[in-house]
Amino acid sequence: MQLKYSNYVAFSHDYGFAVNNLGQCVTCDSHEEKTRITERMWEALCGKRIKPPAALAVLFVLMFIGGCFFVKANQAKEFEKNDYGVFLNADASSLERFKMCETIVIDAQYFTKRDIELLHQNGTVVYTYLNIGSIENFREYYTTYAELAIGEYEHWEEEEWVDVANPDWQKFIGQLSQELYEKGVDGFFIDNCDVYDYDPHESIFEGITAILQNMMTFGKAVIINGGDTYVAEYRERYGAIDQIMTGVNQESVWSSIDFDSGTFREQTSETRDYFCKYLETCKADGVEVYLLEYTTNQKLIQKIKEYCKEQDFHFYISSSLELR
What we know:
alpha/beta; 3-stranded antiparallel sheet; globular; 11 helices; 22% strand
């Protein structure tokens, strides 16, 4: 941005005159009046009288410094990064937009190693989405593992719950994790540990645990999205959760989704309080906490921001389920 001062005019309500960037009174009629006004301006600023040439020079310097501060303030605002963003349905055409976030979650199966390197050059932390608890019919590996499906996934027609206890599925997830790791991602955003909610058998619990513990061997962040029933059970059994995760992301703590009408609402107080307690417990266990909310309600957005600031939680508020 280049500042131009040629048309700058400042008006004094107290003294009843206006000056341009050269210190010239543009509302004065005579040279004598212009001189008197310039002296009065300096006296108003410093309490001293000074000759017009010096006053003009000082005034210009003050205006220049003020302009520099204005430019820097606007640049800082323009380049201020968002803390967190979740963009599961975006592709490499959004790389420039991603640079506005400190930390992002993407589906790195659809990005190259070079794409992730470019984001790292900008200082962006990149987590990859990885669905371990259900199988999606749009994935290229769907037909290979479709026979491992164990049930329908409500509200998501393209997904089915998958048998995480199956050795073939565990081996496949391990291989996929390795591929994503080699692309240079900073961590894994693990979805659908809630399969343990759907099928709370010991084999399912052990299957999730085996997958997560293997993922922790990469030395990267492991963020569990949801999965509160599984996480609570693991904590109850082993006393801590740091062997399976480094962070937790919870959707719809303060907001809720009406799938029938396709609209967003405020979460019930009972559910909100349950998730807040769960997340605060996770924070006390030493893991990072992230919230993903869906709303356009400005009052609710303000409540979410205030709560996350108070708890030192990360958050992303989306106006759409698409997460583009």
